[in-house]
Structures are given as structure tokens and as C-alpha cells.
Amino acid sequence: MELKKTDKMCVIGIMWFFWWWNVTHERPSLHPTISEAERTYIETSIGESPTINESKIPIPWRKFFTSLPVYAIIIANFARSWSFYLLITKSPKYFREVFGYNLAETGFLSALPHLVMAVIVPIGGQLADKLRKNTLSTTAVRKIFNCGGFGMEAIFLIGVGYSKTITSALVCLVLAVGFSGFAISGYNVNHLDIAPRYASILMGLSNGVGTISGMICPITTELLTKNQNKEGWPIVFLIASLVHFAGVTFYAIFASGEKQPWADAPEEAQCNWQPPTDLPAEMMHGEYGYADPTERKDNNLSFRRVSNQRNSSTDSNQFYTSSSRYTSGYNQSTVNEPLVNSQGYGYGETLSGTTKEQNVNPYHQGY
């Protein structure tokens, strides 16, 4: 039995879902094949830290809905989605009714605008990163690429609506979709600039609002072009252009490329929290509440005693190194063994010979 085109798309969608389910993970630290360098780079970029208790981080919904940079992204996404759904659902009908040309049967011409966009997007991304690194601020780069890309798309959408020949209509359509590829380096990555910790939530929020245009745009188009009314098509593309110009204006005024004050984890999630250890319960004893490093060694967490080259004869100058994954990001840093002092905790100031040293809680060093 031969599958219809829609059935094939459904099968591909199901296959993609299972593939996505298998390769995605909640956070970089949980990915089974990620390299240490890549994990550190990602976590540093998005602001994650082993000293932050994720369970104590509430989602700042009120801050989301009172932030103008967030609204700038949402409105830009809505504008882009309007033209996207218009071209996906109605461009074959436009070419058929206005020019008597069945664009859906010409696969290459149907795919050409999106093929051009696929080429433009990575080029725009590389150019945006280069400008951010050497010349302009992140805010300036985001506004230039978003407003420039959407502005040019809006102009060429008007050209599509008022074209008198199929050639000019196709050229304008290809240029419109192509320029929209530059805008991907604007609004579409702006979530990571303003709130890296909540970027996934903001992406879902802006995309959710953007899909509303997927309901409004087809209905509006059908009302304006019912009974194969050719005169309605220029109005359809003019509306799409005006929606883009509105999005460009709002984004140019209110968008930001700087991290927002509410994007950091609250103080209560950062204070006095220690990463869990992999030590078994029978090792968690001793005067200071953690295991004696000389007692045993297991696969997940091990300590080794090394001598201090300055004075190997004193216990106060002995060091320990940890291979725990919670300290791996600090490149096997060494810490002083805690000593008992007059305060009774071993983490205050002590005297070793004639040198005054500061002993540090090994779980707090480096944070």
C-alpha cells in the first residue's frame, strides 16, 4: 500500500520524535557523551554553577511579563510567523489565482526561497558573531540584523503583492525570505542574551504567541481573496508588510542584548549550598563531617595525599586533590587539610611555624 504525502510526513514526524527523545537531555551535566570542555563552556555561558541549588530557583513570570525586551522578542516572533505561515499555506494559491501557475507542482521553485534562507542563516550568524566580537555591542548587532532583515523582507513582500509578472513575483519572494534569514541572528537568539538561564522558557513563550499568527493570517487571507478575488492579494501582502514594520519599530526601540537583572539566580539559591558527594554513608564520619581520605578509594570520588614541597615534615602542609566530577572543572585543584584551631572548626586562621596561613573549607574553595 502506497502512503500519501501527508502520511509520509506523519511517519517522518514520529521518527524525528523518537530520535529527539533519545539524544536530548535536561542539562549539559546529564549528557552521557559530552566532553568536559564543552560542558564547562555551555554551563559558563548560560550561568549554571555547581553552587546553585536549582530546586530553589522560582521562575520569574512577573518579570517576564513586565520586561520590554521580552515583549520585543515576542512581537518580532509574531511578525516573522505571520509571513512564514502566509507563504507556507497561501503562496501556491497566490501563484495559481493571480498568474495561473501551479507552483506546488514545481518543486524547485517552491523550495527556492527557503533554500536561499538556509544559506543566509549561517552566513548571518557568523557575521553577527564577528561584529559582536570586534566592533559593535550585542544590542546593536541584534537590532541591526533583526530590523534590517525584517525591514527588507517587508519591502519585498509589497513587491510580491504588486508584481505584474510571475518572474518579478518569484524574485521578490526569494529576496524577501532570504533577507529574513538575517533576522534569525536578531530576535531568534536574543533569549540567550537577556536571560540565558530562562532562554528555553522565553523561546517557548515567544513561539507560542507566534503560532497565534498561524491562526489569524490564513483566516484573514481567505476573507480578502474569497471567490478568487485577485484584487485582494496586494492587500494580503501589504498587511504582512505592515505587521513586519510594526515588529521592526517595536524591536528597534525596546530590544536589548544585555543580561537582565532578573535573569540571575536569586540569592537564596546561591548561599550555603554544597554539592552532594558520591561517598558511601559508612565513610561519612569524622570530626569534620566528611570522610577520612586515607581510609578508602572508590571509583567516583577518591583522594590522594601529596606532600607540600615547602615543608613535608608538618601535617599542616599536607594537601589533598579530588577527582570528583563536582570539582573536575577546577582542574584538580589542591586544598589544605583542615586543622583544629582555637575556634574549633579548622577553617579559620592558624599559625604554621612562622607563617600565618588561611585554611579553607575544601568544598567552598573556588566558588
Counting helices, strands and paired strands, the structural category is: mainly alpha
Structural domain tally? 2
- What do we call the CATH homologous superfamily of the largest domain? MFS general substrate transporter like domains
**The CATH class of the largest domain:** Mainly Alpha
Q: Biggest sheet, strands in spatial order?
A: 1-2-3
Mean pLDDT: 78
**Beta-strand percent range:** 5-15%
User: The biggest beta sheet, please?
Assistant: 3 strands, antiparallel
CATH-level-2 architecture of the largest domain: Up-down Bundle
Q: Percentage of helical residues?
A: 40-55%
Estimate the global geometry from the Cα principal axes: globular
- The beta-strand count equals 5
Instruction: Tell me the span between the first and last alpha carbons.
Output: 63 Å
Cα-based radius of gyration, to the nearest Å: 29 Å
CATH topology of the largest domain: Growth Hormone, Chain: A
Poorly predicted spans:
283-324, 326-360, 362-367
Number of helices: 11
String of helices and strands: HHHHHHHHHHHEEEEE
Work out the oligomeric state of the chains in this entry: single chain
In short:
The protein has 367 residues and is mainly alpha-helical. It contains 11 helices and 5 strands; from the N terminus they run αααααααααααβββββ.
